[in-house]
Design brief:
114 residues, mainly beta, 3-stranded mixed sheet
């Protein structure tokens, strides 16, 4: 029995209601650039596994949200990825936590979990 089949059997036997996406989690590309993130707002669904693929167009930025347990460093020319499955509905601010210049304090984006 393959590893994937074992995971499916374990989830089914545990009574898990979660669907297994054969194509993997949805991927959202996020670009950091002085002094903001693009897109500035994303919407996720509670319980949905999503991969955030992070890029920087200029300098080193951070991607931090304490409630969502996100803390990534985004280096120019590299891609950072974080996969999350939010379990709480709400609106959460994600900030840059690496000093990136004069406008650093206003660099944030919004993650809405429905």
């Amino acid at each position: 029995m393959s590893g994937i089949a074992v995971v499916v059997v374990i989830l089914m036997s545990a009574g898990a209601a979660r669907k297994v996406n054969a194509q993997g989690p949805r991927v959202i590309d996020i670009t950091a650039k002085r002094y903001g993130f693009t897109p500035s707002t994303i919407t996720l669904k509670k319980g949905e596994t999503v991969t955030l693929r992070l890029h920087s167009e200029d300098v080193v930025h951070g991607f931090f949200s304490r409630p969502l347990k996100l803390d990534e460093t985004i280096e120019p020319g590299k891609t950072a990825e974080v996969t999350i499955t939010p379990q709480t509905v709400g609106t959460f601010q994600t900030i840059c936590d690496h000093f990136c210049g004069a406008g650093h304090g206003s660099m944030s984006m919004t993650i809405v979990v429905e």
